Amino acid sequence: MIEDLHRGITLVLYQTTLLLGILAMPVALAARRLGLTLPVRPLIESAERTYERADGGAEGR
């Protein structure tokens, strides 16, 4: 039960991170024109790894 809750929470956080990344795209493109970069990709990759680790426990079911 706790594992299901943990997996569900990590899924919601992962999806929220993806949404924020998509919404930040115009800002990131404008910043890139100014020579700046936003650390969106590492944030999404970190959330993805966390979700995959949490979802790994469900494979045995």
Report on the structure:
- The chain has helices spanning 2-23, 25-33, 40-55.
- With 61 residues, the chain is mostly helical.
- Helix 1 runs antiparallel to helix 3 (40-55).
- The model has no long low-confidence stretch (mean pLDDT 82).
- The chain crosses the membrane at residues 12-31.
- Keywords: Membrane, Transmembrane, Transmembrane helix.
In short:
77% of the residues lie in helices and 0% in strands. The chain has 61 residues and is mostly helical. It has one domain (2-55).
State the assembly state of the protein chains: single chain
Described by strand count, sense and barrel closure, the largest sheet is: none
Order of helices and strands: HHH
C-alpha-based Rg, rounded? 15 Å
Question: Strand share of the residues?
Answer: under 5%
- Low-confidence spans: none
User: Helix share of residues?
Assistant: over 70%
Q: Tell the overall outline.
A: elongated
Q: Give me the secondary-structure category.
A: mainly alpha
Domain count? 1
How many strand units? 0
Quote the average pLDDT: 82
Distance between the termini: 13 Å
Number of helices: 3
Tell me the layout of helices and strands.
Elements: H1 2-23, H2 25-33, H3 40-55
Provide keyphrases for this structure:
61 residues, mainly alpha, 3 helices, elongated, transmembrane, membrane, transmembrane helix
